[in-house]
């Protein structure tokens, strides 16, 4: 079974079949499609996408659970659809650098934004990727008007490396120096991994 990661505010669980209907519902929202640079998919396509994300060794995706919304006790292996609020993923997509990962984050539920869930999810994903895939640099592409996302990644230390006029999009990167890795592990302190 794939890993789940328990943090302070969020628990990250593998993207399971049971999550697909709600995920598909989220991705009908024009704001979320635009903010994440996604195309709308049919429900069947979303099921295929879920399979491809779980089978592709270059991708790692987690559904974000808001721990306050979990009904009863968290059980590793259960989808806990009642508490799903977004997703976070990495994609090793730079052919010249297999230790570079692009990171994506979405807190889809508006009520769950601005509570630190996005920040904690990205930190946990990065710690997991450093430990398990030896990632040494993270990259993120953000629309220039997406203040929330720019604010989040800049706060984590990401710096702009390029700008695309065609897509009105900035690319930011964060190299994982020894001191950054230490800082990351301290920040996520008591994260518990279930595998
Ligand atoms: C971007 C997003 C993931 C932020 O997640 P979040 O859980 O709301 O953010 P957090 O509460 O963890 O905030 C972390 C930091 O991000 C920045 N931030 C968050 N929301 C912000 C906003 N609306 N405006 C400016 N900065 C913001 C702040 O620096 C914040 O730190 P602070 O609270 O100490 O000031 C969320 O708004 C989202 O999913 N938006 C839609 C999808 C999207 O844009 N995804 C990113 C695509 S690149």
TrEMBL record:
Family the UniProt entry places it in: Belongs to the acetyltransferase family. GNAT subfamily.
PROSITE patterns (alphabetical): GNAT
Alphabetized SUPFAM superfamilies for the sequence: Acyl-CoA N-acyltransferases (Nat) (SSF55729)
UniProt protein name: N-acetyltransferase domain-containing protein
Matching PANTHER family: ALPHA_BETA-TUBULIN-N-ACETYLTRANSFERASE 9, N-ACETYLTRANSFERASE 9
GO MF, one annotated term: N-acetyltransferase activity
InterPro entries, per the entry: Acyl_CoA_acyltransferase, GNAT_dom, NAT9-like
Coiled-coil portions: none
Span of domain N-acetyltransferase: 10-175
Assigned keywords, A-Z: Acyltransferase, Transferase
Transmembrane regions: none
């Amino acid at each position: 079974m794939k890993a789940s990661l328990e943090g302070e505010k969020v628990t990250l669980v593998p993207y399971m079949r049971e999550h697909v209907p709600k995920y598909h519902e989220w991705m009908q929202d024009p704001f979320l499609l635009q903010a994440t640079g996604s195309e709308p998919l049919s429900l069947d396509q979303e099921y295929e996408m879920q399979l491809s994300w779980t089978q592709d060794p270059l991708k790692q995706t987690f559904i974000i659970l808001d721990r306050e919304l979990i009904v009863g006790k968290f059980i590793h292996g259960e989808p806990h659809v009642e508490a799903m609020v977004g997703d976070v993923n990495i994609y090793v997509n730079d052919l010249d650098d297999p230790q570079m990962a692009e990171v994506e984050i979405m807190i889809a539920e508006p009520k769950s934004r601005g509570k630190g869930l996005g920040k904690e999810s990205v930190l946990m994903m990065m710690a997991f990727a450093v430990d398990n895939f030896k990632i040494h640099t993270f990259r993120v592409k953000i629309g220039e008007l997406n203040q929330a996302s720019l604010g989040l990644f800049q706060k984590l230390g990401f710096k702009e490396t390029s700008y695309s006029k065609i897509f009105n999009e900035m690319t930011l990167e964060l190299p994982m120096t020894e001191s950054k890795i230490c800082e990351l592990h301290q920040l996520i302190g008591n994260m518990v991994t279930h595998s």
